[in-house]
Structure formats: structure tokens, C-alpha cells
């Protein structure tokens, strides 16, 4: 059973019916391991995250941002996974353009 906050803005049925979730059913079970120690990144980093991504939740992007002092997180409203080729608007592409052009 999934709590509503785990799948918002989707219903639990939608989340479970997602192809990504179905793929996970075939993975072997394993214990959670401790996160390895990571060195903070010294280079500029751009993280794009859709606020409706069921595959890589926004919380994961925020965790990665903590390891990138020169990082920037752009949250694309209404976007799901693969923003670079599925976003309906231009916010993600504009963020990449600004990032690459300094």
C-alpha cells in the first residue's frame, strides 16, 4: 500500500501502473546498503527535475544537489521523466542553454 504523498500528484493506481514500476517487479530483492562516501563535485552542475516524475523523485535531485556546491536545480512544473525530449514547454531547454552559455 502506497500513501498518497508517495505518488502525488498521481493516484497509487497510476503510479503502480507506470511501466517503470512494473519493471522493478522483476528485479531481485536486495538489502539497502549504506551510501558510499562521495567527494563533493567542484564543477558546475545542472540538475533538471520534473515535479511529476515517478521514476526519479525530486527528493533525489535535492540529495544530489547537496554534493554539488556549484550546482543548480531547475524544477520543471508539470514535467515527468526525460525532460530533454518530452517537456511540452521550454523551461528545461532554456535552463540548459543558460547553463552551457554561462
Automatic annotation (TrEMBL):
One Pfam family it belongs to: Abhydrolase_4
SUPFAM superfamilies, alphabetized: alpha/beta-Hydrolases
UniProt xrefs under InterPro entries: AB_hydrolase_fold, Pept_S33_TAP-like_C
Residue span(s) of domain Peptidase S33 tripeptidyl aminopeptidase-like C-terminal: 13-100
Full protein name: Esterase
Amino acid at each position: 500500500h502506497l500513501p498518497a504523498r508517495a505518488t502525488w500528484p498521481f493516484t497509487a493506481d497510476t503510479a503502480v501502473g507506470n511501466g517503470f514500476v512494473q519493471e522493478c517487479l522483476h528485479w531481485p530483492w536486495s538489502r539497502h546498503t549504506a551510501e558510499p562516501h562521495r567527494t563533493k563535485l567542484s564543477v558546475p552542475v545542472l540538475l533538471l527535475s520534473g515535479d511529476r516524475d515517478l521514476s526519479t523523485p525530486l527528493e533525489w535531485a535535492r540529495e544530489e544537489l547537496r554534493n554539488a556546491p556549484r550546482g543548480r536545480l531547475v524544477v520543471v512544473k508539470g514535467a515527468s521523466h526525460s525532460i530533454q525530449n518530452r517537456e511540452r514547454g521550454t523551461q528545461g531547454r532554456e535552463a540548459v542553454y543558460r547553463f552551457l552559455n554561462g
